[in-house]
User: What shape does this take?
Amino acid sequence: MAEKMAETKKRARELGIPLKGTTGQHNAITDVAGVEVGFSTVIIGEPEDYTGSGSPFARTGVTAILPRGKQRSAVFVGRHDLNGNGEMTGTHWMDDSGFLHGPILLTNTNSVGICRDTAAGWMLENNFYYPLVVDGRPIDGTGYFYPAVGETWDGILNDTNGFHVTAEHVREALDGAASGAVREGNVGGGTGMQCHMFKGGTGTSSRLVDTDAGSFTVAALVQANHGFREHFEVLGIPMKNEIKDCRPILNTFAPKPGTGSIIVVLATDAPALPWQLSKMCRRVPIGIGKLGAGYENGSGDIFLAFSTANENAYTTAQTTISLIGDDAMDPIYKATAEVVEESILNALCAAEDMVGREFNKYFALPHDQLVDALRKHGKI
Assistant: This one.
């Protein structure tokens, strides 16, 4: 594996885009205390090395999100699918139990299996799971857990049918997960992705929220591989006539406009229970829609939300949990839409031009044209 990282580009706020809300320290999902994020970015070969599936060529990777860091944990979880043309493993048990056990991984479509199996092995090796309890005694090496692995398709830039993500890459993302600032753009699972027909990828954002029940953090991390150029807008300003050129170069085939997917992972430290977390997920499309996407049948728009509160909620016996009242959730729902919108913008702003298989190319969103357009319309 060879990893190439460009210098950090300005994020949306650093460009002067006046986005709503107060962010956490890093304006990232890691602003929810305990959350860790890791990446493995798989860049192999040059475009001329691609001669068909299995060539020594890749533009892909893995993103790992650990809700409570590298410790055994089960968190309350909720989810929602806006459009189901995609995959996330473990969702049936989430729906039945209301819990997520273990890490969340994001990758390309054909690497879901290796990510899921490697994560399961990693959980066993690191005592990251809850063993079955028989007659009051835990039985080591037993139990059931379902790592969550989501995907978006990177087959325009990546040799996705070459299955270049390996167990070593998955372990690199898991073992390297950390708190603090989070890289964005062409990194991890977002490496080979496009967004609104610009280069897309990984993005994140957070909000500090005051509610009647107290102050909390709401945050998101997205893998953005969705959207149609003609529908793209920022702060209500359509960009189709504002941004010149920068059209993708597609030497293979051009997917139907809007075809793609977005995975959104939400995190909060508010003591929200599964039905409330699912309601947070149902607000995600508001943030996606603010940028002009969410309409397409050919997109997998899959959302998951977890809460790091109620640390001892998972038990085989009776327990006591905290609950935020439904009426206090309104500011959290609003913050959900805000962090999704900003996370997508951050993915677009951080991404760099990328040339992929058969010299297909997606261009980065041009910062100067974006800022000029917003200034012209009085938004900056």
Observations:
- Confidence is low (pLDDT under 50) at residues 1-6.
- The chain has one domain: 14-376.
- The two ends are 42 Å apart (CA to CA).
